[in-house]
Amino acid sequence: MAATDPMVPTELGDARTLTGVRASAAALCDEDYPPVDGDYQNRTYFQPVALAGVLAAWRRTARLIVSGRVPGDVGLYIHWPFCPTPCAYCYCDRRAGADAAERRRGLDALLLELRTFAPVLRGVVFSQVQLYGGTPTDLGAAGLDRLFAEVRASFALRPDASLCVETSAATLDESVARSLVNNGVTRVDIGVDSLDAAVLARERRGQDERSADGALRLLLQIPGLDVGVALLFGLEGQTSASFVRDLGWVLRRRPRRILVYGFDPRPQTAFARSGAALDAPARERIARTVLATRPVLEAAGYRADESGWRPTSSLLGVGWSAMSRAFGSLWYQHPPLDGRPVADGAIPPFLGMSSSMAEEMRGYVVRGLFAGGRADAAGFRAAFARDMTAAPAVSRPARALERAGLARFDDDGLELTAATPALRARARSFFYSPSVRRALASRGAAGFASSGAPCLSYSRGDS
Ligand code: SF4
User: Which of 19, 73, 96, 183 could staple 148 via S-S, CB 3.0–4.6 A?
Assistant: First the structure.
């Protein structure tokens, strides 16, 4: 009986009978995207770690990578928190309205952190660089040039490394576009979000249809650049009609990728902090509308995007709120800036938790279940040189889920069959290690804070 299985919490067994719209696994947002309010590798239960401890962890991981004992794919994430103006719906760690001196201190801190980690990562070759925020192109061409010069001086990049940058219409001009080209950027995501006049009257200052069109033209004329355009539905004042119009506007411009998000009023948004909330019908309407764009995107030749960010086994995160994984040694994160001014150009503090091979295995499964509703056996084998079925850290909870009728577990991996976002979140928690459970209990950390608003990622089938 599932409900009496000691591995299955009673409420999860009962919740199997809940009805509701089956959430598309691929439609859930990425809990790894800083700031992390996800339910695993979560700074809310991490402890302070000294810089010396973080460097020692990377030294250990670098040795393991170089000797081939752990996977060698390593990414670099850089967080630039500044934006020209704030958006009330935004849940990223961002700070708006900072003056030039403060932004200079922000850049100094990033450059210092890159230089500090360079010596311990000699011999490691990075396959991805992600520059997100905030609005990284708010750095301007000169700032971007300095940052990329430091990245290349500090770390070895694979010749085919992906270099991805986030931008906005308000911060992209010809000099910035040139800098992206000169620095070898391969992929740009531009947040257009909405062109609805009622939305633009209070959000995304500096963006209108003309500036969005100009920015997109600049990007689309760069040969070989992988351009993604993000739209959002569910904002205050936004109508379904204007959302449909915006979707048509983007489709006519044929970027390689289109991302469609539902407004997700996480606790850190100014929207939620003002005491505002979305009721259940509003959330359902957002989810329905976003999911209804699928056939439209498909009719226009777009397909669900399989080429999204493949998480790297190790990740060096630099800047406020950036999260890091030194594979098998340490998970850590800088705290979010959370709107506070940057007081100096020093490296932000570290909050972390020791890792191990078993923790990495659990993390692999939790992230896979979160991002796509499944943890793939082939990827597991590639990362850990063993089968999922032979790794007790994940096979025991996987079998418990299967007995509860909430998942399939076979040679291809683990696939959730649980029907609702809440149920799926509970299913993921089966894989939490005792130390994570203890930390969660002792810190009283909030669980996953997303409303489960869908986000779709589509790319042109003809590319
Ligand atoms: S939505 Fe984009 S531009 Fe607006 S505050 Fe957030 S990161 Fe900045």
Answer: 183
Q: Which are the contacts of 218, defined by CB distance < 8 A and separation ≥ 6?
A: 172, 173, 174, 177
The boundaries of every CATH 1.10.10.920 domain in the chain are 1-30+357-443
Once rounded to an integer, what is the mean pLDDT over residues 190-213?
Answer: 95
CA dist., res. 23 & res. 135, Å (int): 30
Residue 208 C-alpha to ligand 1 middle, in angstroms? 15
**Percent of the chain clearing pLDDT 70 (strictly above):** 86
Give the helix/strand (H/E) hosting 360. helix 357-372
CATH assignment, 43-304: 3.80.30.20
CB of residue 265 inside a 6 A radius of ligand 1: no
Residues in Cβ contact with 25 at an 8 Å cutoff, skipping those fewer than 6 apart: 371, 372, 373, 374, 416, 424
For residue 332, is pLDDT > 60?
Answer: yes
Q: Is the pLDDT of residue 306 over 80?
A: no
Residue nearest to atom 1 of ligand 1 (CA): 90
Atom of ligand 1 nearest to the CA of 133: 7
The pLDDT value recorded for residue 195 is 97
The answer to whether the CB of 34 is under 6 A from ligand 1 is no
Q: What is the pLDDT of residue 267?
A: 81
Ligand 1 midpoint to CA 287 (Å): 21
Q: Residue 205's pLDDT is what?
A: 87
40 pLDDT tier (thresholds 50, 70, 90): low
pLDDT exceeds cutoff 70 at 138: yes
**Phi-psi map region of 94: left, alpha, beta (phi>0 left; psi -120 to 50 alpha):** beta
Q: Where in the chain are all domains bearing CATH 3.80.30.20?
A: 43-304
Residue 170 Cα: closest atom of ligand 1: 3
For ligand 1, say whether the CB of 450 is within 6 Å of any of its atoms: no
Q: Whose CA is nearest to atom 6 of ligand 1?
A: 90
Cβ of 207 less than 6 Å from ligand 1: no
Centre of ligand 1 from the C-alpha of residue 247, in Å: 20
CATH 1.10.630.10 applies to domain 1-30+357-443? no
